[in-house]
Give the backbone structure.
Amino acid sequence: MPLWQIDIYPAESEIDREGERTREEIHELGLSDAASVVFAKSFLIQGELDQSQVENVAQRLLADSVTERTVVGQAGSVQLSTAPSSAKAGVQLVNVLPKPGVMDPVAASTIGAARDLGFDVDAVRTMRKYWISGVDDDTFDSICRRALSNDSIEQVVAGPLEMEQLDVGAAYDFSLTRVPIRSLSDDELETLSREGQLYLTLVEMQNIRDHFVKLDRDPTDIELESVAQTWSEHCSHKTLAGRIHYRGVGADGSPGTDERQYDNMLKETIFAATQSIRKQLEDQDWCVSVFKDNAGVVTFDDQFHACFKVETHNHPSALEPYGGANTGIGGVIRDPMGTGLGAKPVCNTDVFCFAPPDTPADSLPPGVLHPRRVIKGVVAGVRDYGNRMGIPTVNGAVYFDKRYLGNPLVYAGNVGMIPVGMEEKEVKPGDLIVSLGGRTGRDGIHGATFSSAELTSESESLSGGAVQIGNAITEKMVLDVLIQARDRGLYNAVTDCGAGGFSSAVGEMGEELGAEVWLEKAPLKYDGLSYTEIWISEAQERMVLAVPRENWEQLEALCDSEGVEAAILGEFKPTGNLHLTYHGQTVGELSMEFLHDGRPPVIRDAVYDPPAQQPLELPQSADAQQQQETVLAILSSLNVASKHWVIRQYDHEVQGGSVVKPLVGPLCDGPSDAAVVKPLLTSKRGLVISCGMNPHYGDFDTYHMAASAIDEAMRNAVAVGADPSKIAILDNFCWGYTDRPETLGSLVRAAIACQDMAIALGTPFISGKDSLNNEFSYMDASDEKQTISIPPSLLISAMGQIDDVATAVTMDAKEVGNAVILIGKTKDELGGSHYCLVNDQQGGQVPTVDTDLAKATFAAVHECISAGLIRSCHDLSEGGLAIAATEMAMAGGLGISLDLQAAEPTADDQLGDLTMLFSESNSRFLAEVQPEAVQSVLQIFQQKGVPAAQVGTIAEDRQVQVLRGQRELLNLSTDAAKAAWQKPLDW
Amino acid sequence: MAAPRVLVLRAPGTNCDEETAHAFVQAGAEAERVHVNRLIDNPLLKDRYQILCLPGGFSYGDDIAAGRILAARLRNHLGDLVNSFVHGNGDRLVLGICNGMQVLMRLGVLTESVSAAGDSEPATLTWNNHGRFEDRWVHLGVDTENNANCVFLNGISHMYLPMAHAEGKFVAKDQPVLDELKQSGRLCLRYVADQQSTISDDIQDFPINPNGADANVAGVCDPSGRVFGLMPHPERHIDATQHPYWTRRKEQPEAGDGLAMFQNAVQWFE
């Protein structure tokens, strides 16, 4: 069968945008300033086609007659390897194409569309073609590797492409594999665990061996894999849900005096806090389903509940930023879809932690992608999946720290709406096991790299199961039929296929009953998968349903009508066993009891001893000029700087529910505290989505870091109008290697803070997730092993509610002459602050939370907002009062003038100017109030015992002026402030 | 006359269908979301409807190019249906929003009766100048001079709506094509600087013209004025609180700027 190639170049009238972008990228990565690039996108098309038919495909389907031109030929023909006239002398050609088996959505769509037009197309692969000149051979080589391709999913062919066939998998010969585990010694068990990529501990391996000794037989490979998947850290959270003996610093600060013994740490801290809040609320309890389904569920209105889940996808994103983030968001969207009987996703959130983009390229450890590439890839991955799903990405944050270099963090969250009464599911005996959506392939088993022999064993085991590309449209189609099937009552239960694939999904759904699975029935992307690969493949965009037999025909017809594939994989049977067959032959049989309860408990020690507090040496006197420089430095620090380059790439308004957008103010460029979304087109009720995180505080004390993150998420939500008595929060712990007692100790201490804060504020956790062992190891130049551990990174995501979205408030200053009121208590808390960060200062007291005051403050702010007394409201966070005031003024295109003498009653005694300006004390807000409402507002705060004072007014002059009595502390034009704030990430 | 019925076309990857149907309902129409496969199975369904609306999204992933695959599928399987709305008895309307406009452009119905040299299409929608997806609110001015007759824009001089696309830059094959379309009032919706600005042919800077479109074109209609495609999203500005800085207003209007377009469509049948 002939293999054709179609190269598509920009027409002569057009700019070679991709060529230009690539040239810039080469420059930014420090690879070459002299390279010039000509780009073409290519399609390799295999099929019974002649030249004129291929030209027809090119013209009718692939190329644009106004802006593009094509070159068509059989692969390998000379016109394809002839440099275009726009290429310079000495040009070298390089082709980059996905490795076989890697998801190629454009190729899949092209096959469908070409066949629809009547062309006999057998296989398609897309390719990128670069003509590069102006560089020597070494540079060319590093450009290919570091700028043009990613080895984990793509292959690079320098020079003309010589390819005769697109391979599409080979037939599979069945043979049942048994693993003689009963005779293995402890050493051999450990070897098997490691080499078989089971990643189980010796004790766990011994448990499995003993189980099969008792059964008097050896396990098959699929049985062993099933156990390994179910017992994995990812699926069972065995460390944090395990036994932990904790010794930490006591309330009086003495080390080791806070000793706690947990049987299940998460259950006894975070989950226990939720239980206690629910008990207190009695019949006002608004939690519906917490810590048991794929997402946490709370009440919303009479007709709908709201659910929320945040996941991480860190390791995949480190290896392949686009694919990792792409499948990360794709995966978390399936969580609400797989909650109860299925929720409809209404918005996404995304939070990233990266190393600074200006990291010198020559300082990168081996195997590490440049942060710039990671950032661009991750943002593009989230963009392409979220936008295609038609789910607005409404909230997020980006944090920078050099410790995220080899191990960036990608948190992705999704909120869904589920009809009241559909929040529970129950698999019934006799229900069919039905898979819905994407086909099963090898992607996600041993990575997408299975057919490549060049990879080292190390990189293969690294990328095993990790590197995939998503296909958002498949998931969108699944969503479209899932909601229709749900509303027609066609199934009894649903869950998503995530980590562990069918193995985890069916294992979970059948836990109470038992299941029989006919593995050969799974639709495959290509031939050659073994029964075990089918079972554990983590191929994307799949859901598993429990369907009553009598509903199958209806479900199948519904799926057919929208082009979604559904297949019966087996049956849920009340046997208590998981029974796996392949063409009628048993390949595995495990008791559900052993699978789910047979894992020995993990027992760990945890210790925590926060570093002793160092004094912070502040300059004796600072003048307005120095403060101005500090403010500009904070505004242009990466954590604070405007994220508009990211935000505008996300569709944050699809579905029509946007009320408070991520960028606010008359020029749509001010940093909103939180998003407000109206999830139902016909109701005024709103959801408020926000987050809080500050990894810098964790270097001081993870307790206060966690408390501050919760406080930040809460005040962000409250600032736009959320009711603080009904905010649900989620925890995502990303930590280093928790086998180290000190690392685990810092996590347990953060969990204790979560427990304390949740109970004190009446703010329940409804779901959470952890990602441990986020470290990157490499051999340095002198062959010493170096390890970079990420800082403790706790993300708190909040979902609040607002009765009527028309009462929402934004942070941009509104009107000249309005009063500015500072709310909350300012303390000497500059430890970990952005003041210290930009001035390279150490020490100080890290911000703490006074929980009683925090609760009263949130309630009072909400009372004022609900009464319509507040025109704008902004929380004080990174950079403290100075930054919050500047942001309000610049977002509103106005000025602000403050006198800190008036703020003194709201602060600890005798705070210096710098502390007043830059302290990051929690639970504080700035509010803009019309002059006639000032008294009512101050009275509300006074009644609640919350410090508040009018500290200034909104001015017309686009200046931020701060006085303290007669002294001027700051005088800054908001135009300069905005320029500094927008520039660093204006890519 | 009874409320007109709107066929809101769904395809794999369509994702603005619900809010678009909602906008038509708010304007007084009846709207039904129908999957393209259902129409291919039963083309006679078309007779139920007076308005065909192609909403926004990423039809078939916008793989290959935005709107390309859905356009190919419509041309291949539903040519009669498209023709009956675009031409027929001249008594129906067609609206394409964002991805819907991209599909209408690929189908050639927006540039109908204009021809370019060679076998090239007269115009296309291509990548934004900066080469990536952008979500941003834009000011839009309506051509009120060149005998513009777009049904949907009747009585509207200015709108403030969000755009959210990667491939929305209108490019004409050559100047004669651009002139012909312009002089016949077909380039009826343009990006402008603000509420006070009138339309201009000189390409405005980013972000006024967010994608670099020729003559700042944001929307194009057919010669009859009944078939209209636009890149910005009128269905995302139906409520006052969808406006990006509604919190700055002391009084809220009853509706967002986009609703009038849908009301015009409904009123055309009265």
Remarks:
- Confidence is low (pLDDT under 50) at residues 446-465 of chain A.
